[in-house]
Amino acid sequence: MLAKVASATIVGIDAVEVGVEVDISAGLPGMVVVGLPDTAVQESKERVKAAIKNTGYLFPLRKIVVNLTPADLRKEGPSFDLPISLGVLAATEQVQVPGDLLFLGELSLDGSLRGVSGVLPIAATAKQLGKRGVVVPLTNWEEAKVVEDIAVYAFAHLQDVLHFLQDPHTYQEPVKAGSVNASVVHHSYDLREVKGQSHARRALEIAAAGGHNLIFVGPPGAGKTLLARCLPSILPPMTPEEALETTRIYSVAGLLQGKGLITERPFRSPHHSASGPSLVGGGSFPRPGEISLASNGVLFLDELTEFKRDVLDFLRQPLEDGFVTISRTKQSVAFPAKFMLVASTNPCPCGYWGDAVQPCTCSPKQREQYWARLSGPLMDRIDLQVLVTRLKAEEITSTATGEPSAVVRERVTQARQIQQARFAQEAAIRCNAQMQTIHLRQFCPLDDRGRSLLEGAIRRLGLSARASDRVLKVARTIADLAHSPSIQAHHVAEAIQYRTLDRFNS
Q1: Between 20 and 30 A from 502 (CA), which of 7, 90, 231, 344?
Q2: Which carries the bigger pLDDT value, residue 505 or residue 66?
Q3: Cα–Cα nearest to 470, from 438, 433, 426
Q4: How many independent structural domains does the chain possess?
Q5: What pTM was computed for the model?
């Protein structure tokens, strides 16, 4: 007898419907799974057999063929355990499986249901397909509930699923562990902890207001890492669209851990030993990398010059495009990568070049080789290049606190609201940093004085066309923070001062 059960698989950060067809016929006992399954799907045969037996149902000693459609799409992961087991039971007429429900879940040998990744995009796809609901493991319930207007049925055991199919009216919704749409975000770092560094604090505020990339350069202990880790505390709240996109990415990566909608902007800080694929994503079945996990948030690269140069160059295209495409022989997927790059580094190998107290012990050749690890095209894409100096003795011992993050965040949020109104007709732009060259003529016009300042900086610092465009974007953000409808000459002058590190790559 033939039975069909609806399921789905992940492609990129989206889901594709998969039909699980189970045919049971006369022949030597055994189960065959076809339809380009990976190893985890192939191993489901033993998990399904043990789970059905340990749940008290009959596993047929006949020839069982499981076909996963479409046959030319690779299927991976253990999420097909539940639909395959239900297909076997339906084909032997032990249960009836409705066609308007979509099933997914991993089975333990005792029949317990274990959580799987990618539930959020699968639930969204089920809604688009017109399904009445989805059946998921209990640990994935809050994740699936993020999708509105579709029923979510969550269970801890195969036996519970079978009871539900026999009598749907007995289903009781789980008790919420917490609010799915919690909007209160608590940050571990606050700008009030930062002593001194008014120039760096100002640059951090500008970066947050416009979504600009930022690098801090200074001696050890100057506070570069602390400043960077305070950035999430001054970023504006995520929009519903950003929160949903971020949650989909973490769902596919299997990092939600039973949580619902992500409302806190991501902050990712990979070690400098990270490889290129770990940053941009990859694998035989492409999975999102650090830049996608940081999408709508911050990617912090501490000790930037310790990263391999070829690894850093992987970031160049995503920084421009806002997405990364992973291509394989039979598959090509795109992952979002709309992140803010924040980096920190020492000015030289010993760390004290330009320091007012401790002399630098590096030779000019060593400093040249040190900065050669950062390519010119990468530095071009960093909007704000900030020198962080050693704190003075009175600043270190001072008990006074700086301006708290909550106050700065209010100014940043107001600047972002100005940008949202400006780009209301531009669906692909959410902040100033995402403007393309064509938008600069419309939104960043300069008066004669401002144009003269920019032209002088281009000649003096050797700025490329890309770098000069980024100066304009930063100037636009500075004007937004000042609630100025037009870019003034002093806005351009302040933006230019944040390109002073370009001389290290000239």
Answers
A1: 231
A2: 66
A3: 433
A4: 2
A5: 0.88
